[in-house]
């Protein structure tokens, strides 16, 4: 195993070329980018001489613990994916950190990020979780990130609910593919609180097979430009929004008519004809010859279109039939 130290940096061929006539302390002080990815590193030593470091690449190593980075107050990008990290810790001093890459580790809880007020991107996809477990989110951490986080990558973490993420109302990109999300109503509730969302990937979740899945999300997320890798046409979005508004208006109008009793009973028209009206007499005569029905009401047969006919030949409009349901 290899420990990342000042000596290791000094002996690195790439840094030897860049040093030229500078002394090692001077060079380390000026250093802004440090790349030791895929070097079999398992531990980070004291690197405090690299006080101006802004980007640190340590992915594809064997690191088990995040440590000795408190000196890096200017660090903006930290790449730690594909290591052996189990806990997010010792990052509170990285006040300038804007992008954090932790995918491919063994983290079970998203925590310890409360002090990172500048964090814009969090990539924590494909954690090596114990069988049957899922990645969970500490509410305090998520609330603290709500003011800054705009990109969240939680792909492939066995996640089956995201209601704890609703407070992240500055999100513009969500990558949550290959999880276990299946509650359409929960997604609609959460996404309705993310007004800036413009790119989202939910491929590989059970919810993708629900009826009208794509249409419903497009109408909820008004700024969404890409869903599951497919671009959203603005004309199609407006059509879906108008269709949904029309459907809701019709439902509301029908409900109001029922509540105000504007829908009449289906036989009420005959009661106002008077006993001498030919239609009423014909109906009365026919009813007198009929055998009593087993349940006391005429059966209903459906014909094509909005008109229905009962067993004695009386035609009902659709709204009359609805009222008959309440008898």
UniProtKB/TrEMBL annotation:
Transmembrane segments: none annotated. Keywords: Leucine-rich repeat, Repeat. InterPro entries: Leu-rich_rpt, Leu-rich_rpt_typical-subtyp, LRR_dom_sf, SDS22/Internalin_LRR. It comes from the Eukaryota. Signal peptide: none annotated. SUPFAM superfamilies: L domain-like. It comes from Astyanax mexicanus. PROSITE patterns: LRR. Pfam families: LRR_8, LRR_9. This is Protein phosphatase 1, regulatory subunit 42.
